[in-house]
From TrEMBL:
Annotated pathway: Phospholipid metabolism; phosphatidylglycerol biosynthesis; phosphatidylglycerol from CDP-diacylglycerol: step 1/2; Lipid metabolism
NCBIfam families: pgsA (TIGR00560)
Subcellular location: Membrane
Protein name per its UniProtKB record: CDP-diacylglycerol--glycerol-3-phosphate 3-phosphatidyltransferase
Function: This protein catalyzes the committed step to the synthesis of the acidic phospholipids.
Single biological process term from Gene Ontology: glycerophospholipid biosynthetic process
PROSITE patterns associated with the record: CDP_ALCOHOL_P_TRANSF
Classification lineage: Bacteria, Bacillati, Bacillota, Bacilli, Bacillales
Alphabetical keyword list: Lipid biosynthesis, Lipid metabolism, Membrane, Phospholipid biosynthesis, Phospholipid metabolism, Transferase, Transmembrane, Transmembrane helix
Reaction catalysed by this enzyme: a CDP-1,2-diacyl-sn-glycerol + sn-glycerol 3-phosphate = a 1,2-diacyl-sn-glycero-3-phospho-(1'-sn-glycero-3'-phosphate) + CMP + H(+)
Amino acid sequence: MAYGPATHKERKLMKLNIPNVLTLLRFVITIAIVVLLSLPLTIEDIPTTGFNPIDLVCCLLFIIGAVSDALDGNIARKKNLVSDFGKFADPLADKALVNCSLIVLCATKGEYVSFILVVMMIFRDLAVDGLRFIASSSGEVIAANIYGKLKTVVQMIVIPILFLEGFPFNYLFKENTYILTNILLGIAVIFSWISGFIYLYRGRKYLGCKKNGN
C-alpha cells in the first residue's frame, strides 16, 4: 500500500516529539529563572539555610532543565526521532539555560560569581558556536571532546550551588564560601577554554583566508 506525503498535521506531530518538547521546556525554564530572579522582591531566607524560596525554585528548575538535556538526546537517538529542529534548538537551549543562569546569578548574587569568569565562558561559547556553524555550513561536524563534557559536568554542579548561595558549603566556609564557588567556576573555565582551543585547532582550516588561485 502506497503512502502519500505527510499532511501538515502529521508534520506538526513529528516536530512535537518528546525530545523536541524537552528542548522547548528548557527555553521555558530559562525564561522562568531569569524572571524569578529579576523580581524586585524581598523574601526572607528559609531558616538555617541562607537561601530563600525563590532561590530554591530556580535551583530545582535548573536541575529539571539539566536532566531534560540528558534525556532528550538519548530518547531522540534510541527512538530515531532526530530532527533538524532538534539539531538546531537543542544546543541553543543548552547554552541559553547555562549562560542565562550565569548572567542572572552574576547580577543578583555577584558575591559568589565572578563576572570575569562568566564572560570568559560565554566568549568561548560564542567563538566555538560560530566555528561549528561555519563548519556545518560546509557539511562538516566538529566532534565534541572530553574537556567540553567535563566543563558541562562542573557547571551542572556549581550552578545549583550558586542558586542556593553556597548551600550546603556555607556551613563550612561561611563568609568565605565565595572562594569555593569561584574556584569551581574557574575549573569550568579551564575545561571550557581547553575544549575551545581543541575546537579551534580541529576547525583551523575554516579560520584562514582561502586562496582564490588567481
